Write the structure tokens for this entry.
Amino acid sequence: MTNAIDGRVASGKQVFTEGDIAAAVVRIAAAVRADYAGEELMMVGVLKGAVLFAGDLMRALGDYPLIVDFIAVNSYNTGRDGSGGQVRLLKDLDIDPAGRHILLVEDIVDEGLTLEYLLTNLRSRGPLSVRSCALLNKAYHRKNSVAADYVGLEAPDAFLVGYGLDFQERFRNIPHIRQLQPARSSVP
Ligand code: IMP
């Protein structure tokens, strides 16, 4: 089973190189710097998928005034049949977001349910502002009208792994982003 999945990853094509990702991170950091004009930001990374992106974005923001926290959610996507999914909070913030400018950092926006849940949750806690950034945007299966304020790269309609993205908790450590080759009988 594991070998079959390894084969699907190995034979899936590379979608974004480390260079593509690094350039996207630099672009987002520049836009954030310009938009917030020196006001302190609270970056909220969404575990686990955004862990590498959040780390690289922090580093790209250099000396910008920043505090950092993480939140973890589980998304239960119920398939592409329109029946919807559920999002559950697994780990809350350690720092109170009230009175702060929040920048939510997501790995990928697909159906949009996770981002919608997190934006609603954070906006209900009295922040000064909430914006979001996503390294990847998949526009094909959106179930609502949410969109990240900062998007790094437009993703193809394929299941992707690497740079934080997993398939069954594996492959997050691949430094670039690859496509998981669809299985003959089932696609995740
Ligand atoms: P959404 O609620 O469908 O937008 O789900 C977003 C979450 O689904 C992301 O934060 C990822 O964890 C996961 N996800 C969506 N597409 C992919 C993919 O291609 N590879 C790995 N995870 C994905």
The pocket of inosinic acid is lined by residues 49, 75, 77, 106-115, 138, 159-160, 165 (CB under 6 Å). The chain has a mean pLDDT of 92.
